[in-house]
Predict the 3D structure of the following.
Amino acid sequence: GLVKEMNYKGNVIMVDGLAGSPGSVLLHNGAASVFANCPNIKVVASVPGNWDEADSKSATLEALSTHPETINGVYGQGGEILGAVQAFQQTGRPIPALADGNPDEATLGWVRENINTVKYCAAINPPRSAGNASWRVALRMLLGQGIKIKGIPALPPLTSTKAALLKWIPSSWT
């Protein structure tokens, strides 16, 4: 993903979700652990994007104002990447490689329009699957059965080509 797009080196800005929310903390800690295992990658700022385009733009602008060095990557949790992109555009700085958790339609529309010039990767957690799994765990706990872990599947990430994405992302998404 992002680390590969950055050629395993450089500076990253992390745009987090809602401060202190369990989902944001888990996503932040997961990404931070990846970056911590890459000795040539430095997280120069971690800012609250609040899963909101306008908030992420403001937070990224602030981070850019205090970090004049080259930024090679931005990690966002969902609904924040466009705000970060707008901050880079407003400051005239090149748009770095981008990683997005659960991108929204507007972001994917922007990616579609810029697919030949942007370095972008995303992770998507399908809401139906996540919701179904959550309800099964909750039901087991209410029935006094506790959490049952049979195993953690180690599946390779699903990747796509530019051509496939152009077919998948509707041109109406903006």
In short: Helices lie at 2-5, 22-36, 53-66, 81-91, 105-113, 127-142, 162-168.
